[in-house]
Amino acid sequence: MVDILRGARPFADPARGPLDIVIDGGQIVEISRAGESEGGNVVDLDGLELMPGSIDAHVHPIHDETSATVGNAAVFGGVTTICNQLYPATGESSADAIARMSREGELGTADFAAHVRWDRSRSTEDVQGAADAGAISIKVFLAHPDKQMQSSLGDLTTAMSSAKSAGLLTLVHAELGDVVDELLRVGAGRQDTAQQMNEWRSSAIEGASVRAASVIAGAVGAPLYVVHTSCENSMREATAAREAGVELYVETCPHYLFLDENSAPPGGQGFVLPPLRSHSDREFMRSMTAAGLVDTLGSDHCGHGPASKPVDKLAGAKAGLPGLEAMAPLIIDAALGDDRWLSRSRAVEVLSSNAARLFGLARKGALDVGFDADIVAIDPAGSSVLHAADLHDAAGYSPYEGANLRGRLTNVWRRGERVLSDGAASGSGGGQYVRGSGRLRVNGHPSVE
């Protein structure tokens, strides 16, 4: 069936509309002025605005969740493609892990791609196997509680060389793990509050790790993608590396744009790594996102159940925050709300188009002919209040509880199928694995003044 979405304007450029967007076979096949298209089922969207479905660049379908459950939850937040952090089991090849994730992910609603965790047991042949199976990156942890997963800078050099040969990006969790481990061992820092977290997992340590990783990327001649960047120190190191010619991309997360150490949820519910930073770091990350120095957004969603996130203590809690459904509404509010600090076009770039280009997600990330009809409809005059009780993940709480947000998500299409109708699910399952099809460099990073 041919559908004609009629009367809505593009969120990034409302002056362009209203438009007819014609969908056939799951793709956008025609765009014209409203009322000009014929021969299809007309869906009246007058007064609404459309943006491409969000691509969450960083999701953990583990802990109390699966690739299927996060895929079902994602579309409620306007996310039509999730980039899963995939952890191969001991002895499991990366290609086999991708096949396992695909079988599970197809039970969810959102489409999905694969970042594959690397550790020193992974051979160059295994990394090539991941690329052949359609992975979009490998992920290296420079800090991790499980020391089998924690990599040294020498390990990172090996990983980046293998990734370069396979044509993959290398994602890096940028903290100096051995330094953090030693600080913990000698008792140099407590971990009972968000402020104390910043003593032993400081922004300076994160920044130093970004610098070290960028030096390695430059030496190897490989691209580098820094996940969940949290602070000014790291942004300045990333910008310096770019100016020195390193191909480096920056991801940040909603919790580094909308929370800080003084607004952290209580106890373990605010525990995330890197930790929540200062208010000034939060404001700096906002300014860099607005300026285009931040390439992508990832929720870094971790659906820990309540037993892993006690409210009365931070020590002993599992790290990670929920945010899969909150990310796009928060960013839309940043472009529409009274305290707007982000342009509409930049919101679309960091939520969707940059990730599609960077990870080679063909036919994703744009409202244009030939692209998948992954579309989110927004009522720009509407509003909503974010409550955990309305969310669909396993956490049972939201760090953004009670946030008043301008711009209400009303409908979501995934490859032309309406999966959310007036805020209610109108379908589930049917997610498809999206293979990486070649990375396109994201250009135009301005300098930090």
**How many strand segments?**
18
Helix coverage percent: 25-40%
Give me the secondary-structure category. Answer: alpha/beta
Continuous helix count: 12
Strand content: 15-25%
Unreliable stretches (pLDDT < 50, length at least 5) are: none
| Total domain count | 2
Anisotropy-based shape = globular
End-to-end distance: 52 Å
Brief overview:
The protein is of the alpha/beta class. Helix content is 30%, strand content 23%. The strands form two sheets. Strands 1, 2, 3, 4, 5, 15, 16, 17 and 18 form a nine-stranded mixed β-sheet that branches. Strands 13-12-11-10-9-8-7-6-14 form a nine-stranded parallel β-sheet.
Describe the structure.
- It is built from 12 helices and 18 strands.
- With 449 residues, the protein is of the alpha/beta class.
- It folds into 2 domains: 3-50 and 369-379 and 406-425, Urease, subunit C, domain 1 (Roll); 51-359, Metal-dependent hydrolases (TIM Barrel, Alpha-Beta Barrel).
- The strands form 2 sheets. Strands 1, 2, 3, 4, 5, 15, 16, 17 and 18 form a 9-stranded mixed sheet that branches.
- It is globular.
- The mean pLDDT is 95.
Features:
Urease, subunit C, domain 1, 449 residues, 23% strand, nine-stranded mixed β-sheet, nine-stranded parallel β-sheet, TIM Barrel, alpha/beta
